[in-house]
Amino acid sequence: MTVTQDLKQETNTFDYQSFFASSLRALQLEERYRVFANLERHWRNPIRAFDHRIGREVTVWCSNDYLGMSVHPDVLSAAAQALDTYGAGAGGTRNISGTSNEHVKLEQELADLHGKQAALVFTSGFVANDAALSTLGRILPDCVLLSDALNHASMIEGIRRSGTEKRLFRHNDVEDLERQLRTIGAGRPKIICFESCYSMDGDFSPIAAICDLADRYGALTYLDEVHSVGLYGPHGGGFAEATGQMHKIDIIQGTLSKGFGGIGGYIAANAELVDFIRSHAPGFIFSTALPPATVAGVRAAVRHLKTSGNERQALQQRVASVKAKLLGAGLPVLDSPSHILPLMIGDAGLAKLVTDELMKSWGIYVQPINYPTVPRGTERLRITPHPHHTPADETVFVEALISTWELPVGGGLRLPRALSQ
Q1: Which of 8, 116, 248, 258 is catalytic?
Q2: pLDDT surpassing 80 at residue 47
Q3: d(CA 229, CA 109)
Q4: Peptide linkage before 337 cis (omega within 30 of 0)
Q5: In b/e form, how buried is each residue of 148-175, taking b as 16+ CB within 10 angstroms?
Q6: Do residues 194 and 210 touch, judged by C-beta distance below 8 A?
Q7: 166 noted as active-site residue
Q8: pLDDT tens, 278-294?
Q9: pLDDT average, residue stretch 233-241
Q10: DSSP for 226-267?
Q11: pTM of the predicted model as reported, rounded to 2 decimal places
């Protein structure tokens, strides 16, 4: 090859490496580049971990294993027994040799939990939302999907991929929802998609009012209970169970990775609708099934939380105590009604400075939450108190936050002491 040909080839070749490097550099300049904690959790205590980055033990204040079910003795025993019985993997997709008796029994358990005829387990909560919503919107004729403005990315992605008409309604605004429902033809399929507990602000949705509108306008309701299942209701059925509205919801979607401490997602609904999703959703059909040992462990967690309220009570007591201390210290925490306590900062760089200081000086791990997870200017720490935290942990945590808030920071920026209006 001549020099001219060589140069021409270089000119006509896209510089992939530079593009990737430039994109990553932009994230770093915006201080939105995400660094993973290299954690080795203690199996007896899920809020203690050894961080291999800094070579020391840390206390975790941002875990989504809300109740510590990942280390519950019943869960560990069931998973170990199933591992010995089935081996490490499922062996295939659910359609091709991957459906074990553990999968069947878990789906029966989940259907019972939510008072529905059937349930279907997916490999994650994200996949459950994406697969179910994209399939419903794609196949129901001329369907309209109405979505709360703060719905999770998995719901947004499923709605987008459905290719059907989407309507956004203002967050938790039933008047705006009704205004939009009025403009949709009476015989047209429509699904109202919303969450029970919104994970960034920690607020709850007006489930009863939304269900009333669905009845009035002939819409299906699709409720994401990801941050509520296991945590609320007398049996851990979620916020819909806690408010007596579970029977009014057509499709309940949940996760197995938070309140139940494992991994996976699911939907629960009437038998025909679940079978419809099972038969048509590519995200279900073409995914290898969850390992039976994982499924067995999750089923043990669901069974335990159906009859035990101890973990839920301990969580609520810890949340109330931590929230009172944060408010008492004058820190800018949203007074959310749930187990999620957002500590508002409003700047990506400051959020990283805070979390770095907490880790370096106090051995406390909290992950900063930045755009696109939350809008720019609303960056925060997402604090999740845990039943395994102790009163001593609370004292150290609040002391660390107060100390960090008093540190001088550069560039004329200051950590907020009050919530912005």
Answers
A1: 258
A2: yes
A3: 13
A4: no
A5: bebbbebbbebbbbbebebbbbebbebe
A6: yes
A7: no
A8: 999 999 999 999 999 99
A9: 98
A10: TTTTTTSSTTS--HHHHTT-GGG-SEEEEESSSTTSS--EEE
A11: 0.93
